[in-house]
Structure formats: C-alpha cells, structure tokens
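Standup notes, structure subgroup. Blocker cleared on the IFG input:
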Amino acid sequence: MKPIGKIAASAMFLIMTAGLSCTVEKSDLSKENLIPRPVSVTATGNYFTLQKGSGIYLQGNSEELQHIGNYLAARLKPATGFELAVKTAGSEAPQGNIYLSLDPKDSKNGNEEYTLEITKATVKLTASSAEGLFRGVQTFRQLFPAKIELATTQEGPWKIASGTIIDSPEYAYRGFMLDVARHFFGVDDVKRLLDELAYYKINMFHFHLADDQGWRIEIKSWPQLTLHGGLTEVGGDKGGFYTQEQYSDIVKYAAERYITVIPEIDMPGHTNAALSSYPELNCNGKAPDLYTGIEVGFSTLCTSKELTYKFIDDVVGELAALTPGPYLHIGGDESHATKIEDYIPFVKRVQDIVLSHGKKAIGWDDIAISEMKPGVYAQHWASVKNAQLAVKQGSKILMSPAVKAYVDMQYDSTTTPGLHWAAYIEVDSAYNWDPAKLIPGVAKENILGVEAALWSETIKTMSDIEYMVFPRLPGYAEIGWSPASSRSWDEYKLRLAAHGEKFKALGINYYHSPRVPWAGDKK
Ligand code: IFG
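Run returned:
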C-alpha cells in the first residue's frame, strides 16, 4: 500500500475509534423510576452533571425561593460533599447550574404544577407557586442515583438524564394520618415521618391527637387533659404529649415542606382520656379511669351539658390559633355510646364552633347522619352509605377506605405489628384501586383527595411506623397525584422496586414485599 494510503488508512482508523470512544451512552428520562409518575416526560438523551462548582440560582428573590434553594442545597450536600451556593440569578446563565424560578401565572392545575427542564448545560425548575417548586425539587432528587440520599460523602459522578417534565397533581389533597393517641410518638419521629412524606409529594398531615387512651396536645385552659390524660397509652406504658410550643414546631417543620397540618380532636366518642381528666365533663360527674386497652365505642362526651360546649369551644379555639391550615378534624366516628338523637345536634353544634374559629371542619363519614354544613368534608373509612349520604348533602369526600388505605392493616397473616379487621393489604392491593371508581355515587368531582391512615394500637416505634407505611405509601402518593388512566400495577411495581435502594439510603425500615421485584434481589 502506498505510504500516503497508509496514512489515510490510519487517519481513518483514528477517526473511527475516536468517534466510537466519544459516543456517550444515551440517557432516557422517560425510563427513570419516578414516584408519583409525572404527567408528561420528554427525553432528550443527554446528561446533566452536577459539579462541585454548580450553583443554585434563584430567579426572583422571595424568601420562599431562598428557602427552597437552601432546602435543595442541604439535601444534595451530604452525599455529594458539594457546598452548592444559593444565589439570586443575574442575567448570565453560567453552565452547570440549577435555576429555580417562580412564574406566578393563574395556573389551571391548582398551585402545585411545575416544569423541570434538564439539558447538558443547565437544570431549570419553574413553577407558578413555591409549593409547586417544592414538589419539583422532590422529582429532581429522585432522578439522581439512590446514593444521593445517603448521609455520607459518596463517589460521583452525579449525572441525571436530560429532557423535560411537565407535572401537576390529580387531587389537591394527598394526605397521611398518624394516630399519636393509642401510642405516643415524639417530635423527632413526627419530623422524620414528615420528611419521608414530603419525598413523595404528600401535602396534608392529619394528626389524630386525642382518643380514649390519651390526650396529646396541651390545652392551657384545660391543663389536666395532658397532665392526667397524657399519662399513659395502649399497654400502660408512659404516654406523653406535645406542649403547644412543640406542636408549633411540628407545624412549622411541616409548613417548610409545604405540608398542611390538620389536627383532630375526636368527639363525642373516643373521649375517655378527656372524661378521665375532668369529672365535670361526665354526665354522672364521675371521672372514669385512664384506659389502656384497644376497645372502641364505649365513651361519649355529655352532649346535654352546656359545659361540654364551652370545653369544645376552648379546645377548638386554642388549637385553631396554633394551626395555620384551613381544616380542623372533629372526628365523630364510632359514637356508639351517644344516642343518635343527641349525636345529630351535637355534630351540628360542633361544626358551628369550628366555623366560629375560622376553620373548616372535616369529620369521619359518620357525621353524614347529621346535617353537614356547607364546606364541611366527610372522610370515608368504612360505610359506603355514609359516604353517599355526605355526597347527597353536597359534601366532598376524603377517601380513606379501611380496606385499601388503613396502613395499620397487616400485609398478610404473618405481619407483626398490625391488625386485620378490615383486610390484609399487600402492596399490590394498596395500589390497585381508583378512588373515583370505588363507591357508586362518589365520582371524581365529589372527591377532595386520598389519605392513608396509620392507627397506632399495635404500632410502638418509628421502625414499626416505617414497616407499615413503606412500601405502601408511595402507591397512595401516586393514586393522589397521577392520572388513574396512566396507572398499572405491572408497570408501577418496577418503579417501586427501584425505590427499594432509595428506602435503604434514607434508612427506612420497609417491608420487603414478595410482590415487588426488588432491585437488590436480582438473582
Ligand atoms: N376504627 C377506628 C380507629 C381505630 C381503627 C383501627 C376509625 C375512623 C379502627 N375509627 O377508623 O379509632 O381503632 O384500625
């Protein structure tokens, strides 16, 4: 071969190999394991790489933007070791940075919509409200490898797939309820749970603060409620309670994660702790003993005494003043010790008391047998009839069907802890339902949203909480956020399987359901 030919041949070879060696493998944003599944994802095949020198640029300088920028920097720091500067963006758009911007237009999808645009050069997260921006930050976090959630510095690179995500929720109310009355949980446990809920875009935290076994929130005008009523819990261990300062600390922590706290004072039933604290609250003037069992339906406030309504007004007044959110939950369930002719006027009067303190009332759907005032919501848990009654009264329904959404239900007969009076609820069963198709006469337009509930008769520790809540919670979050038409267990279970690594990185004690092909289990 002539020398020039040789040179041409080797040049050709070099170009070929060079060409081969610098073809970066293509990414596919649409194959990322995001939960809840976003409404629309368009992949562009590149990668954005977070670098040591990357910054978080705020387009606008509101306090909320600053807070979200700082929150994101704090989430990314432990595993990457990067001190990401949070700055107000000028006109320049230096490469390798993240841009957060608020574009407050009158958004059609409620105020949680966001758009996440990822290119090789930059990440741009835009939303019409800070809440929407915060939800988009959770999606952004999920795009990184699971090790991003570890608390210690890890090897990079920190690459995420490029493309555009446009997202917004189906339901405005995606909730979780924690019963701290049967067993008490301290502030740190509640904050840890709030962080876990925020990761899956849950936005409502229903706090079941009082029941037969314990009163858990300090009421300054009725101090014995906690000094006596907070002394114990199911099984007779030391109970506990939140001072108003601690309650406010929890409310603030939740608000920083755009989660609204909804306090519940269950009444007229489920009130033994209050009745045991004040003899005068009892019709016979005698205070019952504190109760450490798990029966229900044996207690009732004295609906015929005026003092009862002063008590409720004082409690609701103090709680409303501590609660920035619009809702206050009045319970109303299982009032088997209250005559129906007393229950009906009682529930009407309590709704008025809540309204007089500037809050909207929510009650378990038992309250539908009374008159429900405009704007009062019913939380469906067991009675189809009550839910239909509530819709007939023009109310919206918060869907918490015990057979699907009670996460104190065992996964199967071998689960400890948990109960199974409603059903055994494995992870697939917890996901395989559509709230808008569950009850005849309760359609999507009648539904406020969905809420998973953890009753704590058998739940004693944070580890118990996490075992019962995960891996079912991401499914409820998706039911509340993503269009029902896009949901199928066979597709979802693969995304959930990939979240096993995230649960591990977050230190969550999750149930290793055999129904899920966990990534770590690959043979
Ligand atoms: N039903 C009771 C709860 C709790 C629960 C345990 C409601 C509304 C059974 N009421 O659910 O207090 O005991 O699964």
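Discussed briefly. The radius of gyration is 26 Å.
Next: hand off to the docking folks.
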